[in-house]
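The protein record passed on below.

***
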Amino acid sequence: MKELLLELSEIPGVSGYEDEVREKIKEKLEGVVDEVRVDRAGNLIGLKKGEGKGSIMIATHMDEIGLMVTKIEKGFLRFTHTGFDLRVLPGQEVVIHGKKKIHGVVGAIPPHLTGKKREPYKSEDLFIDPCMPEEEVEHWIRPGDVVSIKRKPVELKGGKIAGKALDNRASCTVLIEILKSLKTHPFDVYGVFTVQEEETGLGAVTGTYSITPTCAVAMDVTHAKTQDAPFLTFAPGKGPVIGVGPNFHPFMVQKLKETAEKEEIPYQTEPIPGPSGTDAWSIQISREGVPTGLVSLPLKYMHTPVEVIDIKDMERAKRLLVRFIESLEEVKIV
């Protein structure tokens, strides 16, 4: 599992431009599922046939946050971003996906030259330097080109991994491992690697509409505890997090909890009083409604290039969902 996560983390896949990571995941599904296809929205869907008593959709988004070029100024690139904390961007290595891939760095005029106090940067203070002659920049790069962070993941002490795009390549890794581990199961299982969760929710909407599953579980990340984090954060290494609230069907929540307790898998509970901000919301309201659950992985430093996850939580989430799927005989609506 660790090696797969390290591999997937490094691959670019900004929202709407998930081609490279989708191809790698598709490669990993070969020989694992009975059918695999890419729908018109760009979702990757793997079907593992069961006994035909129903169908369950396990969904995890494969896109990551990124940047987009908005303007070229004398060989430097102005940009907008999707979800990044601006404080972490200066000094980052990036890849500009223009007519060809071009490496660059995010820079800003240092305070030594501006005479201003060392205050947090605003978006207009930042630029990308591709370190190329101006005419070459204008030839290879255009406004609208996406930019991904270049970051090699690293192993930390205590079985933890730090890197970019662990939101949500960690869940993608778990889903691949779930599909590998499933043997006998009453329900057909659709493993759906969705597009554009970070921006539009497109993938979960269209994927659910076409599959029309009996029930579904979305997998994502949630905020892990750090030294000064407020409440409603979750301890890394203490197990996956089960969402509770109106976005999640009571049967699915109870079944997930019962499975964890029966299998002696530690878990945590996240109260969410409204839409969860995950694919679970789009799935739940598709067509006439889909009974939906949410399983999340505690993640430190979300939406930065150094997100941190505990492999133990991923392994436990895999065990939980494999046993959940294998024991699912029916879905009780009321």
Observations:
- The chain has nine helices and 17 strands.
- The chain has a mean pLDDT of 95.
- The two ends are 37 Å apart (CA to CA).
- Residues 311-327 form the longest helix (17 residues).
